[in-house]
C-alpha cells in the first residue's frame, strides 16, 4: 500500500492468525475482576469494573464476555442481560487504544486481535436473540457505543454524555457506526461523527441513539421490575416496561432539544458530498455556531474526516455485519498508518494535544488514498460475521 509522502511510523505484523495474544491475566488484589456478574431471578447483570480507567474496554474483557453471551443466549433460565459501568462517572470510555500503539511499536498484532474480537462482540450484542439492556449512566465514548447503541435497548439517564471523538485521534467512529450513525435523520450522524459533539441525557433519545430515557434514581426500581417480569420475556414486553419507566421520569418535564436551534444548519451544512463541501457550507453560513464547527474540524485528522464521511455515505446501504466488516478493514489501515499513532501520542501519551497530521490538509487526502483504505484485506484476513458467532 502506498501512502504518498507520509511515512508509516510503526511496522504492524501482517501475517499469522488473529488470536495469538496472551491469555487474560488472572484476578489478583492488584488486578481486580474487570467484569462483575450478578444473577437476579432470570436476569443476568454484568458490570464493567474498571472505574480507574472509566471502564474502558480491554481485550481481556472482550474475551471474557463474548463466550458468556453465547451461553446466556442458549440458556433457558436467562431471560434478559443487562450491562452497566461501575462507579458514578462512566458507562465506558471506549476501547484500549493505547496498547494498540504499544503493540504496533513492537511489530505486534494486538490491533488486529482487539478490533477483530471487539467487533465480533459488537455484532453479538447488535443481533442478540434476547433482550440486552445497556444502561448509560455516565460517560459513553467511542467504543462504548458498540456495547450499547448497537443493541435493541439502550437507556440514557441525566448523567449520560455520549461522544464519538475518534477523528481527533486519527481514527474514525467504528463499532458499527457506519450502520447506525448513517441512519440518523437530518445528517445528525455525520455531524456527530465528524465533530465528536457531545450529546447528553434525553437528547440521546431525541437523535435516535438511545431507545429510552429514565432517571438514574429509577435504576434500582428497574432491576426489581425486571426480576418480576412474567416468564418468558419478549422484546415487546421489554419495550413496554421501559416505556413505562420513561413515562414516569423527568423526561416529562419541558426541556428543549439542545440542538434544535441548529437542526436546519446541521441538515444543510453536513449534507455536503465531501468534507471540503461541508467546510464551504459552514463558511457560507458564517454564524458563530458554524465558525465553532470549523474550528473543531480544523483540529481533526484530515484523513480520518474523509474516511469517516465515506463510511457513513456507504453505510446507509449496509447491514450491520457489512458495516463492521468494512470498519475492520479501516482499522487495520489506520493501525498501519501514521495519523492514528500520532493522535494517541498527542491525546493520551504526551498529552500535548498538538498532533501533526500527515497529510495535513483535506486537499492532500486523495480519492486514491481513500480507495486503499476501503479495499479488501489480503490473505483471507477479512472479518466475517453471521449467526455462527453464537456457536
Automatic annotation (TrEMBL):
<keyword id="KW-0496">Mitochondrion</keyword>
<feature type="domain" description="Enoyl-CoA hydratase/isomerase">
    <location>
        <begin position="44"/>
        <end position="374"/>
    </location>
</feature>
<dbReference type="GO" id="GO:0003860">
    <property type="term" value="F:3-hydroxyisobutyryl-CoA hydrolase activity"/>
</dbReference>
<keyword id="KW-0101">Branched-chain amino acid catabolism</keyword>
<dbReference type="InterPro" id="IPR029045">
    <property type="entry name" value="ClpP/crotonase-like_dom_sf"/>
</dbReference>
<comment type="similarity">
    <text>Belongs to the enoyl-CoA hydratase/isomerase family.</text>
</comment>
<dbReference type="GO" id="GO:0005739">
    <property type="term" value="C:mitochondrion"/>
</dbReference>
<protein>
    <recommendedName>
        <fullName>3-hydroxyisobutyryl-CoA hydrolase, mitochondrial</fullName>
        <ecNumber>3.1.2.4</ecNumber>
    </recommendedName>
</protein>
<dbReference type="InterPro" id="IPR045004">
    <property type="entry name" value="ECH_dom"/>
</dbReference>
<dbReference type="InterPro" id="IPR032259">
    <property type="entry name" value="HIBYL-CoA-H"/>
</dbReference>
<dbReference type="Pfam" id="PF16113">
    <property type="entry name" value="ECH_2"/>
</dbReference>
<dbReference type="GO" id="GO:0006574">
    <property type="term" value="P:L-valine catabolic process"/>
</dbReference>
<comment type="pathway">
    <text>Amino-acid degradation; L-valine degradation.</text>
</comment>
<keyword id="KW-0378">Hydrolase</keyword>
<comment type="function">
    <text>Hydrolyzes 3-hydroxyisobutyryl-CoA (HIBYL-CoA), a saline catabolite. Has high activity toward isobutyryl-CoA. Could be an isobutyryl-CoA dehydrogenase that functions in valine catabolism. Also hydrolyzes 3-hydroxypropanoyl-CoA.</text>
</comment>
Amino acid at each position: 500500500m502506498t501512502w504518498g509522502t507520509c511515512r508509516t511510523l510503526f511496522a504492524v505484523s501482517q501475517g499469522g492468525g488473529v488470536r495469538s495474544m496472551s491469555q487474560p491475566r488472572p484476578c489478583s488484589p492488584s488486578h481486580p475482576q474487570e467484569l462483575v456478574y450478578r444473577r437476579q431471578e432470570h436476569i443476568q447483570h454484568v458490570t464493567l469494573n474498571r472505574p480507574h480507567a472509566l471502564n474502558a474496554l480491554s481485550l481481556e474483557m472482550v474475551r471474557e464476555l463474548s463466550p458468556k453471551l453465547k451461553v446466556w443466549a442458549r440458556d433457558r433460565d436467562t431471560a434478559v442481560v443487562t450491562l452497566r459501568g461501575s462507579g458514578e462517572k462512566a458507562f465506558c470510555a471506549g476501547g484500549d487504544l493505547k496498547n494498540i500503539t504499544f503493540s504496533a511499536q513492537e511489530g505486534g498484532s494486538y490491533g488486529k486481535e482487539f478490533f477483530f474480537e471487539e467487533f465480533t462482540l459488537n455484532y453479538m450484542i447488535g443481533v442478540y436473540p434476547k433482550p440486552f439492556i445497556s444502561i448509560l449512566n455516565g460517560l459513553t465514548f467511542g467504543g462504548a457505543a458498540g456495547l450499547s447503541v448497537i443493541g435493541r435497548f439502550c437507556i440514557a439517564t441525566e448523567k449520560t454524555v455520549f461522544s464519538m471523538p475518534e477523528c481527533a485521534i486519527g481514527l474514525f467512529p467504528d463499532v458499527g457506526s457506519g450502520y447506525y450513525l448513517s441512519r440518523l435523520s437530518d445528517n445528525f450522524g455525520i455531524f456527530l461523527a465528524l465533530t465528536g459533539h457531545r450529546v447528553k441525557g434525553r437528547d440521546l433519545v431525541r437523535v435516535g441513539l438511545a431507545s429510552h430515557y429514565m432517571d438514574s434514581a429509577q435504576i434500582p426500581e428497574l432491576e426489581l421490575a425486571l426480576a418480576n417480569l412474567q416468564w418468558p420475556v419478549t422484546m415487546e414486553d421489554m419495550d413496554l416496561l421501559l416505556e413505562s419507566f420513561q413515562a414516569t421520569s423527568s423526561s416529562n418535564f419541558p426541556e428543549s432539544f439542545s440542538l434544535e436551534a441548529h437542526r436546519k444548519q446541521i441538515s444543510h451544512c453536513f449534507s455536503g458530498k465531501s468534507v471540503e463541501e461541508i467546510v464551504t457550507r459552514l463558511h457560507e453560513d458564517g454564524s458563530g455556531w458554524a465558525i465553532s464547527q470549523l474550528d473543531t474540524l480544523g483540529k481533526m485528522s484530515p484523513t480520518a474526516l474523509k474516511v469517516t464521511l465515506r463510511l457513513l455515505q456507504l453505510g446507509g446501504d449496509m447491514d450491520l455485519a457489512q458495516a463492521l466488516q468494512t470498519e475492520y478493514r479501516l482499522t487495520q489501515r489506520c493501525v498501519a498508518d501514521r495519523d492514528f499513532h500520532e493522535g494517541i501520542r498527542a491525546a493520551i501519551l504526551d498529552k500535548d494535544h498538538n498532533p501533526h497530521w500527515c497529510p495535513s490538509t483535506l486537499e492532500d487526502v486523495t480519492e486514491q488514498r481513500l480507495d486503499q483504505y476501503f479495499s479488501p484485506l489480503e490473505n483471507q484476513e477479512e472479518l466475517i460475521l453471521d449467526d455462527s458467532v453464537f456457536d
